[in-house]
What does this fold into?
Amino acid sequence: MSERRLVVVDDAEVLAERAARLIAAAPRERNARVCLSGGATPRAAYERLAGLGAAWDRLHLYFGDERCVPPDAEGSNYRMVREALLDRVDIPDDNVHRVPGELPAPDAARAAEDDMRRSFGDVPLPRFDLVLLGMGEDGHTASLFPGTGGGDVTDRLLIPVHRPELPQPWRVSVTMPVVNAAWHAVFLVSGAAKGPVLRRAWEGDARLPAGRVDPRGDLTFLVDRDAARAAGLEG
It folds into this structure.
């Protein structure tokens, strides 16, 4: 098991600032590949990142999951990242590797996987410098949900996901081997409602996709004080 590090900050605002600085620091002396998460907390981080600045020509951005909607639709993670970050910085178009959510989910997953393999070159698994992860109250991360089998897939980089109860029922998600090949994986967790599942993920509960994140490199839980307190993890 990778060494787990818990970083507790005062609130969601500080959490977003810390996450933005992690991304900005990724391309130090070479190209850096970062896998982004969707959601409100990451959006705040991307907005702060636009103000911080980074070596945009050396930063390559990918998406950990995407809803199968057009790129300008409500619910598109690409649209969220574009509005929060991409439209505000001078990053080359070729450095942004979106999932083509306008395609049917199996085709979108296949196209995104082909792009990822091309851009990483001849390696068994792409190894991201940084993977940002959210955590749902049900223990899902990316779009790998408990009880669906998505977290067990080992022969694909990205897979289609169907959740008929959700507003955007078809999604595409990276698989657990991609997450666990990372040099650094970071959970961003905010709010007391996430406390119970945060505790289980911290303890490595393999019944939850979030609990199965165990990268070859470092694993950081970057959480606000409300989440840490509710999880019983505040020192």
